[in-house]
Amino acid sequence: MQRNEYSINRDIDKNDSDIIDDIPGNHRHDGDKKGEIMAHLPTILRDIARNAAIGLGFGSFFYLLVGVIAPGWVPVNTFSIVTLFVMSALIGELTFLLGNGRISGYIAHCVLTFALVIAWILVNGWSFSHITGGLPTVVLVFILIYAAIWTISIAHNKLDARKINERLTKQR
């Protein structure tokens, strides 16, 4: 067993948090989480932006893919693209909020994602009648796209984990 080169002198190392709290402008209090949240705000904002960007990437890719495979299903105009961006970013945030590893979170994510897609279709004033097969086709396409996105995400996460494990093995 390796000995730690650092040691703690219990006589010198005392908790001076009370002194720090007395400094003007420092508003840290027991039970006050505001300071804790503010300290993590850059990380939180980075995560929000990253999740929204991932959602935008998936949403844009599949919007274009559906447009190529079935022209006319999703009309391309400024409003539909802007609403697609909003919907895709929200789905990205849902993934962050509900992807907690529990089956209930994944079911809620699927249901809410489907609700956002239906809301997007309705907000854009599209009807299901112009789509061959109507609503059942929309449901089938949703399931296929949803499964493809999760397959891509899981494969990506496994690849990242493998790379991290390889780096850790090399560092030993």
Please trace the helix and strand order, writing H or E for each element. Answer: HHHHH
Mean pLDDT, all residues:
80
**Distance from first to last alpha carbon:** 15 Å
Cα-atom radius of gyration: 24 Å
Task: Tell me roughly what share of residues is in helical segments.
Answer: over 70%
Explain the overall architecture.
The longest helix is centred in the C-terminal third of the chain and has 38 residues, at 134-171. α2 (34-69) crosses α3 (78-98). Mean pLDDT is 80; it is low at 1-24. The chain has 172 residues and is an all-alpha fold. It has five helices and no strands. 70% of the residues lie in helices and 0% in strands.
